[in-house]
Amino acid sequence: MEDTAVDVIARLAQWKTDGGNYSQRSEPFKINGCDWRLTLFKRPTTSIRLSVEPPENQLHFDRLVFVLRVTGANRELHFSTVGEIVDETLSCWYFYIGMNFQSWFVISVEFLDFKISLPNGAAGIFPGDDKLQHLATQSSSRSFSHMLVDSDITISTSDGELRAHKEVLSTSSPVFRSMFTHDLISSTIEIKDMTSESCLTLLRFLYGSVTREELWKHRLVLLGAANKYDITNLKDVCEESLLEDINADNVFDRLQEAWLYKAGKLKRGCFRYLLDFGMINHISREEIQEFLRKADRELAVEMFSSL
């Protein structure tokens, strides 16, 4: 049995089978740090197995929710089911389709919720971004408050004030560097489109002491700040984070945000989810019309010219 490739974006995996009268198996694919595999059985009846890899690697799921779909050559939906597991230890699931396909078709599995108990007692949950995890552990022994000793700039946010160093801000952002070199008269800068909490997360990122949870919580506001102040590495992290959990409920909002903040990677990811993976066919006509009504005209034209 030859293994065939699976396409993955965010929490969605799609596997194209050729419709032959024989069993087929996908290559392993990774979502949220776990390896998975899809297997198609043709006899005695058509069925699909979703399994954790390797098979002996059973996981204890505190909660797992996923949607499995089978679509035909014209993206018509032939089969759809929701799987939900709560507080169980399992390694595979079987789904009986009860129909035969004469041409190729696509099996999709989209994970909506995922929480496992790890051997050390910790919980593994979405998000699972390695880049965020790296940032969370970077300089973890340093005290952020200690870093702000001898700070020389005040940041006035929408609901308070914070202290920072011009040198750190200038090194991280050409916009701040220009501001401090040419424009700033006082020792206070105004960032009124951020709260103190979200601005503090921005500072923690610039000082190398941010946590994954802080970035996840404020990632949309941080994407706007990264675009405004030209902080390239922060923009990359925020785009990748926002791509991690796109789904049918939020993809249009993410697309608008990508357009607003000139986030090309996020925009391309949303287009890929909607068009290449065909998920626009699983979004209601009303939601599509609402997007078209609110979206920038150029964005709407760009998306639907790709259909």
UniProtKB/TrEMBL annotation:
Q: Name one Pfam family in it.
A: BTB
- Matches recorded under InterPro entries: AtSIBP1-like, BTB/POZ_dom, SKP1/BTB/POZ_sf
Instruction: List residues of the BTB domain.
Output: 151-207
| This protein's pathway | Protein modification; protein ubiquitination
Reading the lineage from the top rank, the first entry is Eukaryota
Q: Which PANTHER family match?
A: OS08G0103600 PROTEIN (PTHR46672:SF1), OS08G0495500 PROTEIN-RELATED (PTHR46672)
What is the name listed in the Swiss-Prot or TrEMBL entry for this protein? Answer: BTB domain-containing protein
Question: Lineage, please?
Answer: Eukaryota, Viridiplantae, Streptophyta, Embryophyta, Tracheophyta
